[in-house]
Amino acid sequence: DIVMTQGALPNPVPSGESASITCRSSKSLVYKDGKTYLNWFLQRPGQSPQLLTYWTSTRASGVSERFSGSGSGTYFTLKISRVRAEDAGVYYCQQVREYPHTFGAGTKLELK
Amino acid sequence: EVQLVESGGGLVQPGASLKLSCVASGFTFSDYWMSWVRQTPGKTMEWIGDIKYDGSYTNYAPSLKNRFTISRDNAKSTLYLQMSNVRSEDTATYYCTKGSYIDWGQGVMVTVSS
After folding, report:
1. Any residues with CB less than 8 A from the CB of A41 and at least 6 apart, and which?
2. Given A39, A102, A106, which is nearest B101 (Cβ)?
3. Strand partners, B72
4. Which of A57, B2, B57, B86 could make an SS bond with B103 (beta carbons 3.0 to 4.6 A apart)?
5. Which one of B45, B50, B100 has the shortest CB-CB distance to A54?
6. What is the distance between the alpha carbons of residues B86 and B101, in angstroms, rounded to a whole number?
7. Phi, then psi, of B90 in degrees rounded to 5
8. To probe the interface with A, which of B97, B101, B103, B109 has the most A CB atoms within 10 Å?
């Protein structure tokens, strides 16, 4: 199985600042079609996960431009610009390059 | 509006069987792969498996494939998860998801305890 390892955030993050979350995979997530199959999710307290980005950097429908995914191969970053109260929660990366579709352990974002 | 509503959870004894359902609405269910994902009380997310839009193909997490079975009834727009010989470590909130994890249900809790 591909192991996904997420970094921590220096919580709490001041409102209005930027925050970057890292995610590393144990194997390249580039598929033969050239796409890199990495998802980011946000789970707000008491809610179901919400897809933020897929294919590393494509934002899902309705997701704010303040969320931007980047990376390649085995190293990925989700940047949240101008952090707001509603961004608080746990962020998960997930690889869908191959089965099983494994998740990272999650990174908690707390706001100051 | 896409809606995914899970049901069938609750308290179950170790070794028992349980079948979860997920009723879908707001989209053409038979056009989409569907998946099950669970989240432990410690918030670990675990992918369980998925099923092709016509039900002809399934994939499972290796650690679960001998005990869990995913199926669907496209006529009823319903996804199922049959769980057998459940263990305490199966205690989790179970989510059904549409397509490439675009939409998620609200989740259903399963507690395995004697």
Report:
1. A49, A50, A51, A52, A91, A92, A93, A94, B101
2. A39
3. B79
4. B2
5. B100
6. 25
7. -85, -5
8. B101
Determine whether the interchain pair A103/B47 forms a contact, defined as Cβ–Cβ distance below 8 Å: yes
Q: What is the identity of the amino acid at A22?
A: T
Q: What is the pLDDT of residue A71?
A: 97
Taking CB atoms and an 8 Å cut-off, how many pairs form between chains A and B? 47
For residue A55, is it left (φ>0), alpha (ψ between -120 and 50) or beta? left
- Mean pLDDT (whole number) for A32-49: 97
Q: Cβ separation of A101 and B47 shorter than 8 Å?
A: yes
Q: What's the pLDDT at A11?
A: 87
Burial of A55 (0-12, 13-18, 19+ CB in 10 A): middle
Tokens at residue B47, please? 């992918």
| Cross-chain Cβ contact A102/B47 below 8 Å | yes
Over 90: is that where the pLDDT of A110 sits?
Answer: yes
